[in-house]
Write a structure and sequence with these properties.
This protein is mainly β and 691 residues long. Helices cover 3% and strands 47% of the residues. The chain contains 2 helices and 68 strands. The strands form 11 sheets. It has a 15-stranded mixed beta sheet with strand order 3-6-9-12-13-16-19-22-25-28-31-34-37-40-41, with no helix packed on it. Strands 32, 35, 38, 43, 44, 45, 47, 48 and 52 form a 9-stranded mixed beta sheet that branches. It has an 8-stranded parallel beta sheet with strand order 15-18-21-24-27-30-33-36, with no helix packed on it. It is elongated.
C-alpha cells in the first residue's frame, strides 16, 4: 500500500501546483476543449501555464476554442513557433462566451512570439471577449487580430512596452463598418487597420486628451478611414503606410492636434482633415526621412523638423501650408515639390529650405524657399497672373560665367555678374510677366547692396533688368546681405543672377577666379594656371592641392598673391601614372576660403587631355588645346546639345601640347560638345557655344 499512496500524493501535488501544459494535438481535431490535445490529457485550468509551440507538434497549425457559450481561464499563455512555422490561436465567431478566454497570471501573462497569431473573432453580443489581468506581450513578428465587434480598450490597455515589442502587430479587421479604437494614452507596437472582414469601407476612430504612441508602423489598408478626434498628439515612431482608397483624417473635430512621424511616409491614399481644427503633420525623425506620396495631401499643414532632412521619392503637392522648422527638403526634376494655387510656405531659413527644384501653380505672389547645401537663397515672383500659371525655380551654386549655355557677355550698365551662383526660373504654363526678387546671401560676396541689379540671360547675353526695392539683411562683415527686385516685370523664364554696376574691387561677387586649368607641359611635368578677374590683395593666399590615392586632397604648394597681377602659373613635377587631380584653395583677405573646380591631367597610358576650348563663344572657329604624353592620332567627335554626332575627323597630336583649329561656321547656333578619343578608348571632352 505505501508505494500506491506515494504515487497518489505525487499526482495530487503536480495538479495543485500546475506544471506547464503543452499542446500535443493528439485528438486531431484542433480544439482547445479536447483533453487529448494536451500533455497529460487534461484541458488547461485556471492555475495552468499553457505553452503552444513546436516542442511536441511540428510545422504550422491552428488551435480553436469550441463553439457555443464556453469560456476558459488559465494562468498564462505563451505561443512560440519555431522559425518558419506559424501557429494561430483562434476565438471563432461561433464562440459567444464573454469572456471566451481569461488569463489571470502575473507579469507577461499572454505572450506572442514571432510568427504567433491570436485571432479574436468572438461572436459574443456584449462584454469583454478576451480578459488579460496583467501584461499582453506581442513580440516583434507576433500578431493579435481584433476580428470582433466587441470593444478593445481592456485589451489595448494591457499591451507591453518592453524592448522587443516595438513592431509587434495589433491588427483591427472588424466585421462591421465602424469601430472605436482605444487611443488616448495608449502605446501600440505596429498598428494595422484593415477592411477585409467587412468586405466594404470601414471607419476606425478615436479621441481623447492624452498622447498616443505607435512605436512601429501605422498601416492603413484599402477601404479604411482612420479618423482622429484627439485633443493630443499622435506619435508614429516608424513609418506611415497607406494603401489606395484609404483615408487618414487627422482631425474630425475642433482640436489643433499634432501627428508626428519619425519614419517615412509611403502613401497611396489621402491625408486630410474634416473638422474645424488645424492639425499639423510633422516629420521629426533623427535620420533622413523619405516621402513617397502617390495619393493626396489636403487641408493640412505639413511641418519639416528634422535636421537630417527629408527626401521626396515622388512629386509632393502642398495644397494648404508647408512649415519649415529645421532641416532641408531634397527634391529633383522627377520628384518635385509643388505648391498648389493658394498654398503657402513659412519658416524657411539658412537651416531649413528646399534643396532642389520647386514649382508654384497659380497667380499668387510667392517666395520660392530654395537654396543648396548651407545656403538659403530664395527667389520671389510678384505681379498679375492667372490661376493656371506654373513656375519652377531652382538655385544653382556654380559660376554662371563658365556654365555651358550661359557665359559672361553683359550689357551696360552692368560691370560684372556673379561668379558663384545663379537661379533657374521656368514658366511651365502661361505667359505672365513677373517682377523678380533675388537674394544676396553672405555667400554672394556683395559689398554694396544698392549697386546690385537683377540680370537675366536672354539666350546670348546677360540683360540688365534693373534693381530697386532693396531689402537690407543682417551684416556679415565685410559683406552685406539682403535682396534686390527687378525694376519692372520680365519674362519669367531663363537664368537669373545678381549683377553690379561697380568694379570687382568695390563689389567683388566674389574675389573672382575666372579659370583654373592643368595641362601636360611635357611627359614629366604638368603646368597649372589660373586667372582672376583682376589683381587681388597681397594678403590673399593660394594653396595648390593634389588628390592622393584615396582621393583626399593634400597641399603640395603655397603661392602668395602678388598684388599686381591676375595671372598665376606653377608646375608639378611629381606626376603619377593615371589621373592626376588638382584644385586651388583660395583664402582671401577676410579669411574666407573658397575652392576651384577640379582640374585633371592624365599621365601615361597614352592619355590625351583636352585642356582648353577657346573662346567659349565662337562664330567661325574653335581652338582646342590638347596635351598628350606621346605622339598619336585621335578621333575628334563633335555633338550638338541633343547628343547627335554632327562632325567627325581625325587629328594628329605631338607629344606635349597641340593646338587644333576646328571650323564651326557651318554649324547652327547652340551648345556643342567636343570629344577626343584615342585608340585605347581614352576620352577627353570640352564644350563651346556657337553664336
Amino acid at each position: 500500500m505505501k508505494p500506491l499512496l506515494l504515487l497518489l500524493v505525487s499526482l495530487f501535488t503536480l495538479k495543485s501546483y500546475a506544471a506547464f501544459i503543452t499542446w500535443d494535438g493528439d485528438a486531431g481535431d484542433g480544439l482547445w476543449s479536447s483533453p487529448a490535445n494536451w500533455t497529460g490529457d487534461l484541458v488547461p485550468g485556471m492555475s495552468d501555464d499553457v505553452v503552444i509551440d513546436n516542442s511536441v507538434v511540428g510545422g504550422s497549425y491552428t488551435i480553436s476554442l469550441p463553439p457555443g457559450n464556453t469560456g476558459f481561464t488559465v494562468n498564462t499563455i505563451t505561443i512560440a513557433p519555431q522559425t518558419g512555422n506559424g501557429i494561430i490561436l483562434l476565438i471563432p465567431a461561433s464562440n459567444t462566451a464573454s469572456p471566451a478566454l481569461s488569463i489571470s497570471g502575473n507579469g507577461d501573462a499572454l505572450v506572442l512570439h514571432s510568427d504567433a497569431t491570436l485571432k479574436n473573432s468572438s461572436g459574443a453580443s456584449s462584454g469583454s471577449t478576451l480578459v488579460i489581468v496583467n501584461t499582453f506581450r506581442i513580440n516583434n513578428g507576433g500578431r493579435y487580430i481584433h476580428n470582433t465587434a466587441r470593444g478593445n480598450a481592456s485589451i489595448v490597455s494591457q499591451l507591453s512596452v518592453a524592448e522587443g515589442t516595438e513592431y509587434g502587430e495589433l491588427e483591427f479587421d472588424v466585421p462591421g463598418s465602424v469601430q472605436t479604437l482605444s487611443l488616448t494614452g495608449r502605446t501600440y507596437g505596429s498598428l494595422i487597420l484593415s477592411s477585409t472582414a467587412h468586405a466594404g469601407p470601414v471607419t476606425y476612430s478615436g479621441n481623447g486628451a492624452s498622447t498616443s504612441h505607435i512605436r512601429g508602423d501605422l498601416r492603413i489598408g484599402p477601404g479604411v478611414t482612420f479618423s482622429l478626434g484627439l485633443a493630443a498628439n499622435c506619435i508614429i515612431h516608424h513609418d506611415l503606410v497607406q494603401s489606395g482608397s484609404s483615408f487618414f483624417n487627422m482631425q474630425n473635430s475642433t482640436h489643433n492636434n499634432l501627428v508626428r512621424i519619425l519614419g517615412n511616409i509611403n502613401s497611396e491614399g489621402v491625408i486630410t482633415k474634416s473638422g474645424s481644427g488645424q492639425p499639423v503633420l510633422e516629420l521629426n525623425g533623427t535620420a533622413e526621412q523619405t516621402i513617397k506620396m502617390n495619393g493626396l495631401l489636403q487641408n493640412a499643414t505639413i511641418r519639416i523638423n528634422n535636421s537630417e532632412g527629408l527626401r521626396l521619392e515622388m512629386p509632393l503637392t502642398i495644397s494648404s501650408h508647408l512649415q519649415f522648422v529645421n532641416g532641408n527638403l531634397f527634391t529633383d526634376d522627377q520628384n518635385l515639390l509643388i505648391f498648389a494655387d493658394g498654398a503657402t510656405c513659412s519658416g524657411a531659413s539658412g537651416n531649413a529650405f528646399v534643396d532642389g527644384p520647386t514649382r508654384k501653380i497659380g497667380d499668387d505672389n510667392f517666395e520660392f524657399p530654395i537654396g543648396t547645401g548651407q545656403i538659403f537663397a530664395p527667389l520671389s515672383i510678384s505681379g498679375a497672373g492667372d490661376v493656371s500659371d506654373e513656375f519652377t525655380a531652382c538655385y544653382k551654386r556654380q559660376n554662371p560665367q563658365s556654365t555651358p549655355g550661359l557665359g559672361n557677355v553683359i550689357t551696360a550698365p552692368v560691370n560684372h555678374i556673379s561668379s558663384s551662383e545663379y537661379w533657374e526660373l521656368v514658366q511651365n504654363t502661361g505667359s505672365s510677366r513677373k517682377k523678380i526678387r533675388l537674394t544676396a546671401s553672405a555667400y554672394s560676396f556683395a559689398k554694396n547692396l544698392q549697386s546690385l541689379l537683377v540680370a537675366r540671360f536672354d539666350g546670348s547675353r546677360w540683360q540688365n533688368e534693373g534693381g530697386t526695392n532693396f531689402l537690407q539683411g543682417p551684416a556679415f562683415s565685410p559683406y552685406v546681405t539682403g535682396s534686390v527686385e527687378s525694376a519692372g516685370t520680365v519674362a519669367a523664364t531663363g537664368a537669373f543672377t545678381i549683377a553690379t554696376t561697380e568694379s570687382y574691387a568695390l563689389n567683388p561677387l566674389p574675389v573672382k577666379l575666372i579659370s583654373f586649368s592643368a595641362q601636360l607641359k611635357s611627359p614629366q611635368a604638368a603646368i597649372i594656371q589660373w586667372n582672376l578677374a583682376e589683381a587681388c590683395d597681397s594678403t590673399v593666399v593660394f594653396e595648390l592641392e593634389k588628390a592622393d590615392v584615396n582621393h583626399r586632397f593634400e597641399r603640395i604648394q603655397t603661392i602668395a598673391a602678388l598684388g599686381r597681377t591676375n595671372q598665376y602659373t606653377t608646375q608639378d613635377f611629381t606626376l603619377s601614372h593615371g589621373l592626376n587631380q588638382y584644385r586651388l584653395k583660395i583664402t582671401d583677405e577676410h579669411a574666407l576660403v573658397t575652392y576651384s573646380a577640379v582640374a585633371s591631367v592624365k599621365y601615361g597610358l597614352h592619355a590625351t587631355m583636352l585642356n582648353v576650348v577657346a573662346p567659349a563663344l565662337v562664330t567661325t572657329s574653335a581652338r582646342l588645346l590638347v596635351a598628350t604624353d606621346t605622339e598619336q592620332v585621335v578621333s575628334l567627335l563633335l555633338y550638338d546639345q541633343m547628343g547627335r554626332l554632327v562632325k567627325k575627323q581625325n587629328a594628329s597630336l605631338l607629344a606635349g601640347r597641340t593646338m587644333i583649329d576646328l571650323p564651326v561656321k557651318e554649324l547652327q547656333k547652340g551648345v556643342y560638345h567636343v570629344s577626343l578619343v584615342n585608340k585605347h578608348g581614352h576620352r577627353s571632352t570640352g564644350s563651346f557655344i556657337r553664336q
